[in-house]
Write a structure and sequence with these properties.
about 325 residues; mainly alpha; MetI-like fold; 2 domains; 12 helices
């Protein structure tokens, strides 16, 4: 296993380089992403042409489009300069915020990461037992109720759900149970640690519900199908013939053999949640990576777009590595030696 992990880590290097090539090409050749009007403030309006030209030249230098003398840099050299800076943790300076991108990411990553970890925990905590119970009680009332509920959840668009939550659960004219924006109140400096945690949890209920219901429905359906497939196998009939209880068969044998689809989904769950955070964080005014990415796209802030896409690529590769390791832990038949 150790040799496999080391081999995979070694192979991640050329894979990551290939991903950065695609990322660099897509972003650099997209129209308006380098010197478009949105990159120079609201609407891109400058007081005069001379100031605008100077600002454009400064931005080009920061993006390694031109050298110190103003001469165009060869495109492959632009990629090498950008990759070298990125691998050293220098993501450049934001054109919109006039701040280092690394500084912006340090403020936003903990917000998005904490919410997504809670969402992943809730999704697996509810989806796996629900799918297991639905498979064991196939055709009964719980299976029908759970199946209809998960299908309905999977069919609901996230923007509609978020709008309904803000309009009814966070609206003072209706229930007003939860705050409509942000992850903290404005007076957190006077709170104790317990009050701070309670205030944080109170604020993230609606964003978490928006992010989790789709994954909950999908993984639950997948778990039910995997359990039903294993419940019909010969080893289950043999275990029943030996006199093992149904609980032992389900929890000790069928559950483990049906874990592989769940592990496979994990490889795309975290990157998928990061993508869903763009919509959720924007709707609930949460200053996270999703909201930052959307703002960067609208303002054509190239350094932020490249930095967030690079981080997403690294997270995807790490999740794939964790998935392969979990395969071997869950199924003894899987060996990488």
């Amino acid at each position: 296993m150790l040799h496999y992990i080391l081999r995979r880590l070694f192979l991640m290097v050329p894979t990551l380089i290939g991903m950065t090539l695609v990322l660099f090409a897509v972003v650099r050749f997209a129209p308006g992403l380098t010197t478009g009007g949105g990159a120079f403030g609201a609407g891109g309006q400058m007081r005069n042409q001379q100031a605008r030209a100077a600002a454009e030249q400064a931005v080009k230098k920061r993006l390694h489009l031109v050298d110190a003398q103003g001469h165009d840099i060869w495109l492959p050299m632009q990629y090498i300069y950008w990759l070298n800076d990125t691998l050293h943790g220098d993501f450049g300076e934001s054109v919109q915020y006039n701040l280092p991108v690394a500084t912006l990411l340090k403020e936003r990553i903990p917000v998005t990461l904490s919410i997504n970890l809670v969402v992943a925990f809730i999704v697996y905590l509810l989806a796996i037992p629900g799918g297991m119970l639905a498979s064991v009680k196939r055709g009964k009332s719980f299976d029908l109720f759970w199946g209809f509920g998960t299908l309905a959840l999977f069919s609901l668009p996230i923007m509609w759900v978020g709008s309904m939550e803000i309009g009814f659960l966070a609206n003072p004219q209706y229930l007003d149970w939860f705050p409509a924006a942000g992850i903290h109140s404005t007076n957190t400096m006077w709170m104790t640690f317990a009050q701070y945690v309670k205030d944080y949890l109170w604020h993230i209920v609606l964003p978490i519900s928006c992010l989790s219901y789709g994954g909950l429905a999908f993984i639950s359906k997948l778990k039910r199908a995997a359990m039903l497939d294993n419940l019909g196998q010969d080893y289950v009939r043999t275990a029943r013939a030996k006199g093992l209880s149904e609980l032992t068969i389900v929890t000790r044998h069928v559950f483990r053999n049906s874990l592989l689809p769940m592990i496979t989904i994990f490889a795309g769950l975290i990157p998928g949640l990061l993508g869903g955070a763009v919509v959720t964080e924007t709707m609930f005014s949460i200053k996270g990576m999703g909201e930052l990415m959307l703002t960067a796209v609208f303002s054509r802030d190239l350094p932020i777009i490249q930095a967030e896409a690079f981080i997403g690529s690294v997270i995807s590769l790490i999740c794939l590595l964790i998935t392969d390791i979990c395969y071997a832990l869950a199924d003894p038949r899987v060996s990488y030696d």
